[in-house]
Amino acid sequence: MVYNSNTISIVPLATTDSLQLNKFFVSNSEWFFEYLPKTLADNSTLDGTRAYIKKKMTAAENNKEFVFTIKDRYSIYTIGLVIIKNINWDKKQGELAYCIDRQNSGKGLMSEAIKAISNHTAENLGLRTLHILAHKSNRASVKVALNAGFEWKATLPKAFAPPNKPALDMELYVWSCGV
Q1: 170, β-bridge pairs
Q2: How far apart are the C-alpha atoms of 40 and 30, rounded to whole Å?
Q3: Which of 13, 33, 105, 129 sits 20 to 30 Å CA-CA off 79?
Q4: What is the mean pLDDT of the segment spanning 36-63?
Q5: What residues does each domain of the chain span?
């Protein structure tokens, strides 16, 4: 367990998450399509989700990437994910990617989760700087970054290309633990 509150719990991704994770992605596919096309494609079937989990658990064992599930505190349902990726151990920095189901969007749960994961990465992984990339039109993601204590630093030209669309400029938000 990484974090537990009255509303959510955050745990590392596990093989037992396959059914709930697959349901999470399938039921939110339209919601996630533009900004999470690869992750969504990897989880379009239950077998795909099992392979995704295996791949991500191996990445975690090798300190390449870490995936955490956000669960409703009082049920078995996966309501979100937080991924620590693009880790540079020499610079002690990484990037966060995240998603939450439509039903739980706008409740402050993702901001709570990002704060918890940020603290976890500083205390347990030794990462001192975290980045979030968000498109300015994705107001919910921008709000999460700001509410979680990240500061806007720069606009990164053509940093992300959604499926079948031109590359987008992305806003860079940075959090530093100050140690």
Answers
A1: 156
A2: 10
A3: 129
A4: 96
A5: 3-176
Q: How confident is the model at residue 179 (pLDDT cuts 50, 70, 90)?
A: low
Output phi, psi for 176, to 5 deg.
-130, 135
State the Cα–Cα distance between residues 87 and 142, nearest whole angstrom: 21
pLDDT band at 150 (very low <50, low <70, confident <90, very high): very high
Determine phi and psi for 89, rounding to 5 degrees.
Answer: -65, -35
Residue 35 has what DSSP assignment?
Answer: T
CA–CA dist 159, 144 (Å, integer): 20
Note the maximum CA span of the chain: 42
Distance CA 64, CA 159 (A): 21
Determine whether domain 3-176 maps to CATH 2.40.10.220. Answer: no
Question: What is the per-residue pLDDT for 68?
Answer: 98
